[in-house]
Amino acid sequence: MIQAIGLTTASRRGRPPAVDDLTFEARPGGITALLGPPGAGKSAALRLMLQLSPGRGVALFRGRPLSRVPHPQREIGTLLGDVPGHPYRSARGQLRMLAAAAGVPAARADEVLEVVGLSGLADQRLGRFSRGMDRRLGLAAALLGDPHTLVLDEPDSGLSPRERAWLHGLLRGYAEQGGAVLLATTDPMETARVADRVVSMDAGRLIADQRVDDFARTRLRPRVAVRTPHAERLAAVLHQRFRATEPVEVVLESGNRVSVYGGDPATVGEIAHQHRIVVHQLADEIGDVGDRSPAGPLLRADGRVVPAQEARPAAVSVDSAPATVSLARTAPAPGAAASAAPPSSPPPSSAPPAIANSAAGTPDAVTRPLQVASVASKALEVGARAGRPAVRPALPPPLPAVSPSGPSWPLRYELRRWAGVYTSWLVMGTALLAGLLVAVVLASAGSWPAERVLTGWAEPLPLPPVAMAAGLLGALAFGQEFRYPALAPACVPVPRRLSLLIGKALISAGASLSLCVAAIALNSVSLTLLLGVRGPTPESWGAAFQSVAALSVGCAWAGLLAAGVFRSGLVGLAAVAAVPLVLAPALRAALDSPFGRALDGLPERLGAMSTLPVASELDRWLSASVRLASQPIGWALAVSLALLLCGYAVLSLRGGPR
What we know:
The protein is of the alpha/beta class.
């Protein structure tokens, strides 16, 4: 159940609001269409409902605003625009990443891919998807958490007729199970085919809120349908007769069909008789019935054969007596098992069995009677009901009771995002290769100490290759997040959340430490094989790791925070490079100035702190950290991290939900 009450967008410098006092309802068990021409305010209304843009009014989802829904991904499925996925990420990787964020099992990704007909293309890169495949993937993402509500912004835009028929069939099956569907569209004919209720908008205001039958009768254009073997000749004659006298539109359809908008059958019949044109059909119609024998829906996009159990008959059948079907669908509550509620009475043989998905503690069953009209009344309705597909794709199975996502979801999400594209692996491989080349050159030249040889840190380099790579990985963690905002609908910027920052910081720190270990091990083994006894000994591994690990983690966090503050991976990388190139020389100059004399002897005082009675391993780490902190680059890194962390915190507080 969706209730939109008084939705009004914020003022735009004296211009009228895009949405002005919009109020409507979208009930469960049906499809509600938000209809209007481009620029009518449909997308703005959906963004207001989902709290993606500022404004007034309230939108309630089962009686609660979005800010009070504990798990929005499990209750409200959205599809606003294209899927914001990395072009080199696979379809399965994209959905598993979203499943980790929603707290649902990873196997759910394969289930929804099977439903939308993309299981055969699960490993295909998103950059190679067509428009129809992208729509299917977006719908799979919307169905991932088994929501009770779907909010879709022109989901059939740019689709072929067969893809559109498949989409409408899937939405119809979802609504028949008790789900609430709200979709924005610009095509009144398609609206009449798929919707149960039509909310018409124009210039941001509500024009009409009607059942689809009333909409078809009052708002669709009536026409005279003519079938004749001389369709081109009749169209030319009618166009010439009505061109200068009456506002009549003559359209030559495919085959032998002519549609006359604004005319009446008597006048059209008399004109045909005067010109001796044979007429096989002459009838009044409402709406656009299209081709009498349209192609079937494109059930799958990967070319696989649809299993017999996946295609089921349409729920609405033609019968002389009305039938009533009780339908219910609710979202499973965390910790509650999904159960099926049997209908109070068995349905008639012409209707499908009642389907119920209910959760303990969250009863929201909605009974919606489906009146099956007679053959005669069907012929008088808008030709949409006859245009619905005879078979419909099966929906994914109900999601079993799963525990709340908990505080670990940022780690699982970030790990899948980080490992889902080859960019991170390419950066790490390049850093290892560069460090190995520098280490071989340093060892061949007899450079010392061994720590610099093992880490490949030559004197002209501002940072070792592993620290540079760690900074780049940190910058990409938020840079790719903001460029491909998978966690935010409508491609809006991802909110700066503390939980997401912690998850990215932990994963980037782990990647940096792993990179340091791999670089030292690779360089040591390679130098031993190439130089023999002249290579670094294993006793120097620990000192080399301690000298570069803190620096690499600090660079990773500096790049992460800078990219999070400025929403740009390039700025994050620039912040990492500025630490040794700008901040460290500036601090060194400040320490050499008269103002820095008060800090004379600080390195020795910091070094004395490492003599505290602590464990040996911790003592070595403290000593390495103190040595880094006593150097200008350590000071510069600490100052940079402190400033960036404060900036991230301030922007996070300012960017809270509106």
